[in-house]
Every structure is written in C-alpha cells, then in structure tokens.
C-alpha cells in the first residue's frame, strides 16, 4: 500500500514545518486528483498510522477531491469528464488526452496552533 509511504512523507513535511515555526499542526489540507492513483480512504487510514506517536498525533487530514478536467481542442474549452473510463469532451464527444486537472496530490495548507 503506497498510501502509507505518502502519509509518512506528509507527516514528515508537516513536522519539519511545525518545528521551524514552533507550533502544533492541527490539520493538513490536501488536494487529491481522481487520477492521482491514491485511494482517499486508504490515505486517511494511513495518515492516522503515520501520525501516531508524533507531534501530529490527533491532527486531521482534510482532503479536497479534484475531478478530472480535460481540454477539448474542438470546443477550445476545458471540460469535466463524465467518466474516467471515457476521455471525451462531454459537450461534443471529441476524444482528448489533454488533462488539465485531476492528477494532483499536493499539500496546500497547514492549520497551526501556537
């Protein structure tokens, strides 16, 4: 399960930031794309394991799920996918492989307490 190694990296990064600022982390905010290859529930469980016995124990991992959005050359517009099994514009049906959003796996904010 690679979610555990991802969770451990998140905890390590947050610990370093907390140590530099001399504060406690209350929550970690993460953007998670539908095509990131990471299972949300597995990451949440892994975060609990990775943060136990660390200064982040009891903190929350808050995940914003990002849907897949592609660029349609025919419409010259960004379009959400109706299914990740069918990479076609939902408006005109043109196949496309130009992914604009949906692969994210990024920490976007830390909630800190003094």
Topology:
Elements lengths: L1 H20 L2 E10 L6 H12 L8 E7 L2 E4 L4 E4 L18 E3 L3 E9 L1
Mean pLDDT: 94
Count the domains: 1
**CATH architecture title:** 2-Layer Sandwich
Give the overall silhouette.
elongated
Q: Overview of this structure, please?
A:
This protein is an alpha+beta fold and 114 residues long. It has one domain (2-113): hypothetical protein PF0899 fold (2-Layer Sandwich). The chain contains two helices and six strands, in the order αβαβββββ. It has helices spanning 2-21, 40-51; strands spanning 24-33, 60-66, 69-72, 77-80, 99-101, 105-113. The strands form two sheets. Strands 2-1-6 form a three-stranded mixed β-sheet, with helices on one face. It has a three-stranded antiparallel β-sheet with strand order 4-3-5, with no helix packed on it. Strand 3 and strand 4 form a beta hairpin. The radius of gyration is 17 Å and the shape is elongated.
Please provide a brief summary of the model.
This protein has helices at 2-21, 40-51; strands spanning 24-33, 60-66, 69-72, 77-80, 99-101, 105-113. It is of the alpha+beta class.
Q: Top keywords for this entry?
A:
114 residues, alpha+beta, hypothetical protein PF0899 fold, 3-stranded mixed β-sheet, 3-stranded antiparallel β-sheet, 2 helices, elongated
């Amino acid at each position: 399960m690679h979610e555990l190694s991802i969770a451990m990296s998140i905890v390590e990064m947050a610990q370093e930031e907390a140590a530099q600022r001399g504060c406690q982390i209350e929550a970690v905010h993460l953007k998670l794309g539908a095509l990131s290859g990471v299972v949300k529930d597995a990451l949440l469980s892994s975060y609990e394991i990775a943060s136990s016995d660390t200064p982040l124990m009891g903190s929350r991992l808050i995940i914003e799920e990002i849907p897949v959005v592609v660029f349609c050359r025919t419409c010259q517009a960004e379009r959400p996918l109706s299914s990740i099994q069918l990479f076609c514009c939902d408006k005109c049906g043109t196949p496309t492989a130009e992914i604009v959003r949906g692969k994210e796996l990024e920490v976007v904010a830390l909630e800190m307490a003094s």
